[in-house]
Amino acid sequence: MAILSDEIIHTIRGYLPGFYKFLKTERGKKWVEDRFDKLEEFSKLLAKEALKEFTEADFMKIMSRLWANELWTNKQYPAERVLSSVKIEDLRSRLSDLLWADKPLSQRYDEFRRTIKGMGPAQITEILSFVNPAECGIWNRRSREALKILGLENVVPVMKYDISGHEYERFNMVLKEIAVLLKSKEIPNPNLLDVDLFLYYVVAVAKKIKVPEVEVEEEFDHDEIKEMLLQIGQGLGFEVDSEVPLAPGAKVDVVWRAKIGNLGEVKYVFEVHREGSIDSLLLNLIKARSDPTVQKVIAVSDEKRLNNIRREASSLPQLSDRLIYWTVSEVKRATELLGELKEIMEKLELVKI
Protein backbone atom coordinates (compact mmCIF):
# COMPACT_ATOMS: atom_id res chain seq x y z
CA MET A 1 0.00 0.00 0.00
CA ALA A 2 1.36 3.42 -0.96
CA ILE A 3 2.27 5.74 1.91
CA LEU A 4 2.56 9.07 0.08
CA SER A 5 -0.70 10.87 -0.64
CA ASP A 6 -1.41 12.55 -3.98
CA GLU A 7 -0.96 15.94 -2.31
CA ILE A 8 2.49 15.05 -0.96
CA ILE A 9 3.53 13.58 -4.32
CA HIS A 10 2.46 16.82 -5.98
CA THR A 11 4.53 18.81 -3.45
CA ILE A 12 7.61 16.65 -4.03
CA ARG A 13 7.33 16.97 -7.81
CA GLY A 14 7.19 20.73 -7.43
CA TYR A 15 10.76 20.65 -6.08
CA LEU A 16 12.19 18.35 -8.77
CA PRO A 17 12.99 20.84 -11.58
CA GLY A 18 15.04 22.99 -9.21
CA PHE A 19 16.66 19.89 -7.72
CA TYR A 20 17.85 18.64 -11.09
CA LYS A 21 19.34 22.08 -11.81
CA PHE A 22 21.02 22.01 -8.38
CA LEU A 23 22.76 18.74 -9.27
CA LYS A 24 24.54 20.56 -12.10
CA THR A 25 25.90 23.32 -9.85
CA GLU A 26 29.36 23.14 -8.29
CA ARG A 27 27.82 22.61 -4.89
CA GLY A 28 25.58 19.84 -6.17
CA LYS A 29 28.44 18.13 -8.01
CA LYS A 30 30.56 18.26 -4.86
CA TRP A 31 27.84 16.57 -2.81
CA VAL A 32 27.36 13.85 -5.42
CA GLU A 33 31.11 13.24 -5.59
CA ASP A 34 31.36 13.10 -1.81
CA ARG A 35 28.67 10.41 -1.75
CA PHE A 36 30.51 8.28 -4.31
CA ASP A 37 33.77 8.62 -2.37
CA LYS A 38 32.16 7.55 0.91
CA LEU A 39 30.31 4.67 -0.72
CA GLU A 40 33.59 3.32 -2.04
CA GLU A 41 35.48 3.82 1.24
CA PHE A 42 32.76 2.49 3.55
CA SER A 43 32.01 -0.53 1.36
CA LYS A 44 35.65 -1.60 1.72
CA LEU A 45 36.14 -0.89 5.43
CA LEU A 46 32.76 -2.32 6.48
CA ALA A 47 32.54 -5.30 4.13
CA LYS A 48 31.56 -8.54 5.86
CA GLU A 49 35.02 -10.08 5.56
CA ALA A 50 36.87 -6.81 6.25
CA LEU A 51 35.07 -6.42 9.59
CA LYS A 52 36.88 -9.49 10.90
CA GLU A 53 40.07 -7.40 10.93
CA PHE A 54 38.40 -4.06 11.73
CA THR A 55 40.65 -1.89 13.94
CA GLU A 56 40.30 1.17 16.13
CA ALA A 57 42.04 3.14 13.39
CA ASP A 58 39.40 1.97 10.90
CA PHE A 59 36.65 3.07 13.28
CA MET A 60 38.34 6.47 13.71
CA LYS A 61 38.43 6.84 9.93
CA ILE A 62 34.74 5.96 9.56
CA MET A 63 33.64 8.30 12.33
CA SER A 64 35.72 11.21 11.03
CA ARG A 65 34.05 10.92 7.62
CA LEU A 66 30.46 10.94 8.83
CA TRP A 67 28.37 14.03 8.12
CA ALA A 68 26.88 13.51 11.58
CA ASN A 69 30.31 14.37 13.02
CA GLU A 70 31.32 17.14 10.62
CA LEU A 71 30.95 19.94 13.18
CA TRP A 72 33.44 18.37 15.58
CA THR A 73 36.77 20.20 15.36
CA ASN A 74 38.45 17.26 17.08
CA LYS A 75 37.42 14.46 14.73
CA GLN A 76 38.75 11.81 17.12
CA TYR A 77 36.42 12.80 19.96
CA PRO A 78 33.23 11.02 18.73
CA ALA A 79 35.15 7.79 18.15
CA GLU A 80 37.03 8.02 21.44
CA ARG A 81 33.74 8.53 23.27
CA VAL A 82 32.46 5.22 21.87
CA LEU A 83 35.71 3.32 22.41
CA SER A 84 35.85 4.46 26.04
CA SER A 85 32.91 2.18 26.82
CA VAL A 86 33.39 -0.77 24.45
CA LYS A 87 36.33 -2.93 23.41
CA ILE A 88 37.14 -3.01 19.70
CA GLU A 89 36.40 -6.75 19.62
CA ASP A 90 32.86 -6.14 20.87
CA LEU A 91 32.38 -3.15 18.59
CA ARG A 92 33.54 -5.22 15.63
CA SER A 93 30.99 -7.90 16.48
CA ARG A 94 28.19 -5.38 16.95
CA LEU A 95 28.95 -3.64 13.66
CA SER A 96 28.94 -6.99 11.89
CA ASP A 97 25.52 -7.79 13.36
CA LEU A 98 24.17 -4.33 12.49
CA LEU A 99 25.28 -4.52 8.87
CA TRP A 100 25.27 -8.19 7.96
CA ALA A 101 23.25 -10.32 10.41
CA ASP A 102 20.33 -12.30 9.03
CA LYS A 103 17.77 -10.43 11.13
CA PRO A 104 15.14 -7.76 10.38
CA LEU A 105 16.64 -4.29 10.05
CA SER A 106 14.52 -2.99 12.93
CA GLN A 107 15.97 -5.62 15.27
CA ARG A 108 19.56 -5.00 14.15
CA TYR A 109 19.14 -1.25 14.63
CA ASP A 110 17.55 -1.55 18.08
CA GLU A 111 20.21 -3.98 19.34
CA PHE A 112 23.08 -1.77 18.17
CA ARG A 113 21.46 1.42 19.53
CA ARG A 114 20.90 -0.24 22.89
CA THR A 115 24.35 -1.79 23.32
CA ILE A 116 26.77 0.76 21.80
CA LYS A 117 26.95 3.92 23.87
CA GLY A 118 27.98 7.23 22.33
CA MET A 119 26.50 6.73 18.87
CA GLY A 120 23.23 8.40 17.97
CA PRO A 121 20.65 7.70 15.25
CA ALA A 122 22.31 10.05 12.73
CA GLN A 123 25.65 8.25 12.99
CA ILE A 124 24.17 4.75 12.93
CA THR A 125 21.81 5.35 10.00
CA GLU A 126 24.52 7.10 8.00
CA ILE A 127 26.75 4.04 8.31
CA LEU A 128 23.85 1.80 7.31
CA SER A 129 23.05 3.98 4.31
CA PHE A 130 26.60 4.02 2.96
CA VAL A 131 26.81 0.24 3.23
CA ASN A 132 23.33 -0.47 1.87
CA PRO A 133 21.94 2.65 0.12
CA ALA A 134 19.18 0.68 -1.60
CA GLU A 135 17.50 -0.15 1.70
CA CYS A 136 18.69 2.32 4.34
CA GLY A 137 18.31 6.08 4.57
CA ILE A 138 19.85 8.70 6.88
CA TRP A 139 17.81 9.91 9.84
CA ASN A 140 19.20 13.31 10.86
CA ARG A 141 18.03 16.84 11.56
CA ARG A 142 18.10 17.84 7.89
CA SER A 143 16.03 14.88 6.73
CA ARG A 144 13.49 15.49 9.49
CA GLU A 145 13.19 19.18 8.59
CA ALA A 146 12.69 18.31 4.93
CA LEU A 147 10.04 15.68 5.64
CA LYS A 148 8.12 18.21 7.73
CA ILE A 149 8.31 20.75 4.89
CA LEU A 150 6.96 18.12 2.48
CA GLY A 151 3.98 17.50 4.76
CA LEU A 152 5.02 14.12 6.17
CA GLU A 153 4.90 14.99 9.88
CA ASN A 154 1.90 12.69 10.34
CA VAL A 155 3.57 9.84 8.44
CA VAL A 156 6.95 9.66 10.18
CA PRO A 157 7.91 11.05 13.64
CA VAL A 158 9.82 14.09 12.34
CA MET A 159 9.98 15.73 15.76
CA LYS A 160 11.93 12.84 17.28
CA TYR A 161 15.71 12.69 17.49
CA ASP A 162 15.85 9.11 18.75
CA ILE A 163 13.72 6.64 16.80
CA SER A 164 13.06 2.93 17.23
CA GLY A 165 13.95 0.27 14.69
CA HIS A 166 10.30 0.01 13.70
CA GLU A 167 10.13 3.76 13.09
CA TYR A 168 13.36 3.60 11.08
CA GLU A 169 11.88 0.92 8.81
CA ARG A 170 8.80 3.09 8.29
CA PHE A 171 11.07 6.02 7.42
CA ASN A 172 12.89 3.90 4.82
CA MET A 173 9.59 2.89 3.25
CA VAL A 174 8.76 6.57 2.78
CA LEU A 175 12.20 7.26 1.26
CA LYS A 176 11.75 4.40 -1.20
CA GLU A 177 8.52 5.95 -2.47
CA ILE A 178 10.28 9.31 -2.86
CA ALA A 179 13.13 7.55 -4.72
CA VAL A 180 10.65 6.37 -7.37
CA LEU A 181 9.66 9.99 -7.98
CA LEU A 182 13.31 11.02 -8.45
CA LYS A 183 13.89 8.64 -11.36
CA SER A 184 14.92 10.67 -14.41
CA LYS A 185 17.74 11.08 -16.91
CA GLU A 186 19.64 12.94 -14.16
CA ILE A 187 19.14 10.05 -11.69
CA PRO A 188 18.35 6.89 -13.68
CA ASN A 189 18.59 4.51 -10.69
CA PRO A 190 17.90 6.51 -7.52
CA ASN A 191 18.74 5.04 -4.13
CA LEU A 192 18.15 6.36 -0.63
CA LEU A 193 21.37 8.39 -0.66
CA ASP A 194 19.96 10.22 -3.68
CA VAL A 195 16.81 10.84 -1.65
CA ASP A 196 18.97 12.20 1.18
CA LEU A 197 20.51 14.69 -1.24
CA PHE A 198 17.03 15.69 -2.40
CA LEU A 199 15.94 16.25 1.21
CA TYR A 200 19.01 18.43 1.79
CA TYR A 201 18.00 20.48 -1.24
CA VAL A 202 14.45 20.87 0.08
CA VAL A 203 15.75 22.27 3.35
CA ALA A 204 18.17 24.63 1.56
CA VAL A 205 15.32 26.02 -0.55
CA ALA A 206 12.78 26.14 2.27
CA LYS A 207 15.08 28.13 4.54
CA LYS A 208 14.83 31.01 2.07
CA ILE A 209 11.09 31.21 2.70
CA LYS A 210 10.08 33.54 5.52
CA VAL A 211 7.72 31.71 7.86
CA PRO A 212 5.73 33.79 10.37
CA GLU A 213 6.89 33.16 13.92
CA VAL A 214 4.31 31.68 16.26
CA GLU A 215 4.85 31.70 19.99
CA VAL A 216 4.51 28.05 20.92
CA GLU A 217 6.28 25.64 23.25
CA GLU A 218 9.15 24.44 21.11
CA GLU A 219 9.57 20.71 20.63
CA PHE A 220 13.09 19.42 21.12
CA ASP A 221 14.96 16.29 22.12
CA HIS A 222 17.08 16.39 25.28
CA ASP A 223 19.91 14.23 23.90
CA GLU A 224 20.05 16.07 20.57
CA ILE A 225 20.47 19.45 22.29
CA LYS A 226 23.20 17.96 24.49
CA GLU A 227 25.04 16.81 21.35
CA MET A 228 24.74 20.31 19.86
CA LEU A 229 26.16 21.87 23.04
CA LEU A 230 29.14 19.53 22.88
CA GLN A 231 29.76 20.44 19.22
CA ILE A 232 29.44 24.18 19.84
CA GLY A 233 31.78 24.04 22.81
CA GLN A 234 34.44 22.14 20.93
CA GLY A 235 34.01 24.44 17.94
CA LEU A 236 34.78 27.37 20.26
CA GLY A 237 37.96 25.69 21.47
CA PHE A 238 36.78 24.23 24.79
CA GLU A 239 37.37 20.72 26.05
CA VAL A 240 33.93 19.16 26.36
CA ASP A 241 32.33 16.26 28.18
CA SER A 242 28.86 14.99 29.03
CA GLU A 243 27.26 13.38 32.07
CA VAL A 244 29.94 14.85 34.36
CA PRO A 245 29.81 14.35 38.17
CA LEU A 246 30.93 17.70 39.65
CA ALA A 247 29.76 17.24 43.23
CA PRO A 248 28.13 14.50 45.33
CA GLY A 249 24.72 13.89 43.84
CA ALA A 250 25.28 16.35 40.97
CA LYS A 251 25.84 14.95 37.50
CA VAL A 252 25.44 17.63 34.81
CA ASP A 253 24.52 17.26 31.16
CA VAL A 254 27.42 19.11 29.52
CA VAL A 255 30.63 20.81 30.69
CA TRP A 256 32.93 23.11 28.74
CA ARG A 257 36.47 23.36 30.15
CA ALA A 258 39.31 25.77 29.43
CA LYS A 259 42.56 26.93 31.03
CA ILE A 260 42.71 30.72 31.19
CA GLY A 261 45.96 32.35 32.30
CA ASN A 262 46.26 32.86 36.05
CA LEU A 263 42.68 31.69 36.58
CA GLY A 264 43.66 28.11 35.89
CA GLU A 265 40.88 25.76 34.83
CA VAL A 266 37.41 27.20 34.40
CA LYS A 267 34.19 25.34 33.68
CA TYR A 268 30.83 26.24 32.19
CA VAL A 269 27.99 23.90 33.14
CA PHE A 270 24.89 23.25 31.00
CA GLU A 271 21.69 21.53 32.04
CA VAL A 272 19.05 20.80 29.38
CA HIS A 273 15.53 20.86 30.80
CA ARG A 274 12.61 19.33 28.96
CA GLU A 275 10.63 17.51 31.61
CA GLY A 276 10.81 16.66 35.28
CA SER A 277 11.02 18.77 38.41
CA ILE A 278 12.40 22.32 38.19
CA ASP A 279 13.36 22.04 41.87
CA SER A 280 15.58 19.05 41.04
CA LEU A 281 17.16 20.99 38.18
CA LEU A 282 17.94 23.98 40.39
CA LEU A 283 19.29 21.81 43.20
CA ASN A 284 21.60 20.08 40.72
CA LEU A 285 22.88 23.46 39.49
CA ILE A 286 23.42 24.71 43.05
CA LYS A 287 25.51 21.61 43.81
CA ALA A 288 27.48 22.05 40.57
CA ARG A 289 28.06 25.71 41.42
CA SER A 290 29.84 24.62 44.62
CA ASP A 291 32.77 23.51 42.44
CA PRO A 292 35.13 26.52 42.64
CA THR A 293 36.19 26.11 39.01
CA VAL A 294 32.61 26.53 37.76
CA GLN A 295 32.20 30.08 36.47
CA LYS A 296 28.67 29.90 35.08
CA VAL A 297 25.73 27.51 35.12
CA ILE A 298 23.41 27.61 32.13
CA ALA A 299 19.85 26.30 31.89
CA VAL A 300 18.84 25.33 28.35
CA SER A 301 15.23 24.94 27.28
CA ASP A 302 12.46 26.61 25.30
CA GLU A 303 11.30 30.12 26.28
CA LYS A 304 8.20 28.95 28.15
CA ARG A 305 10.09 26.48 30.34
CA LEU A 306 12.91 28.99 30.92
CA ASN A 307 10.40 31.53 32.22
CA ASN A 308 9.20 28.95 34.74
CA ILE A 309 12.82 28.29 35.79
CA ARG A 310 13.43 32.05 36.20
CA ARG A 311 10.48 32.37 38.55
CA GLU A 312 11.64 29.47 40.71
CA ALA A 313 15.28 30.61 40.72
CA SER A 314 14.41 34.17 41.75
CA SER A 315 13.97 33.03 45.36
CA LEU A 316 17.39 31.36 45.48
CA PRO A 317 20.05 34.02 46.21
CA GLN A 318 22.87 31.50 45.89
CA LEU A 319 21.87 30.90 42.28
CA SER A 320 19.58 33.61 40.89
CA ASP A 321 22.39 36.04 39.98
CA ARG A 322 24.66 33.30 38.62
CA LEU A 323 22.28 31.42 36.38
CA ILE A 324 22.22 32.07 32.62
CA TYR A 325 19.37 31.08 30.30
CA TRP A 326 19.83 29.81 26.74
CA THR A 327 16.92 28.90 24.46
CA VAL A 328 17.05 25.77 22.35
CA SER A 329 16.32 27.88 19.27
CA GLU A 330 19.52 29.83 19.95
CA VAL A 331 21.44 26.58 20.45
CA LYS A 332 20.15 25.30 17.10
CA ARG A 333 21.04 28.58 15.41
CA ALA A 334 24.56 28.48 16.88
CA THR A 335 24.95 24.95 15.50
CA GLU A 336 23.83 26.14 12.05
CA LEU A 337 26.29 29.06 12.16
CA LEU A 338 29.08 26.67 13.11
CA GLY A 339 28.22 24.62 10.02
CA GLU A 340 28.14 27.73 7.83
CA LEU A 341 31.56 28.78 9.15
CA LYS A 342 32.92 25.34 8.30
CA GLU A 343 31.61 25.65 4.72
CA ILE A 344 33.12 29.14 4.31
CA MET A 345 36.53 28.05 5.57
CA GLU A 346 36.49 25.00 3.29
CA LYS A 347 35.77 27.23 0.27
CA LEU A 348 38.70 29.48 1.21
CA GLU A 349 40.89 26.37 1.59
CA LEU A 350 42.78 28.09 4.40
CA VAL A 351 42.29 25.42 7.05
CA LYS A 352 40.64 22.07 7.37
CA ILE A 353 37.82 22.15 9.92
Task: Describe the protein's topology.
Layout: H1 6-23, H2 26-45, H3 56-65, H4 76-83, H5 88-100, H6 105-115, H7 121-131, H8 141-149, H9 165-182, H10 192-206, H11 222-235, E1 239-247, E2 250-260, E3 264-272, H12 278-289, E4 294-301, H13 303-313, H14 317-320, E5 323-327, H15 328-348
Parallel strand pairs: 3-4, 4-5
Antiparallel strand pairs: 1-2, 2-3
How would you characterize this protein structure?
The chain is 55% helix and 12% strand. The chain has 353 residues and is an alpha/beta fold. It has a five-stranded mixed sheet. Helix 8 crosses helix 10 (192-206). It starts with 5 loop residues before the first helix and ends in a 5-residue tail after the last helix.
Q: Keywords for this structure?
A:
353 residues; alpha/beta; five-stranded mixed β-sheet; 15 helices; 55% helix
Characterize the largest beta sheet: strand count, sense, and whether it forms a barrel: 5 strands, mixed
Protein structure class:
alpha/beta
Mean pLDDT: 88
Computed over alpha carbons, the radius of gyration is 22 Å
Pick out the low-confidence regions.
209-216
| Number of helical segments with 4 or more residues | 15
Q: Work out the number of β strands.
A: 5
Order of helices and strands: HHHHHHHHHHHEEEHEHHEH
Q: What percentage of amino acids are in beta strands?
A: 5-15%
Helix fraction, binned, reads 55-70%
Quick one: overall form?
globular
The termini sit apart by 45 Å
Report strand order across the widest sheet: 1-2-3-4-5
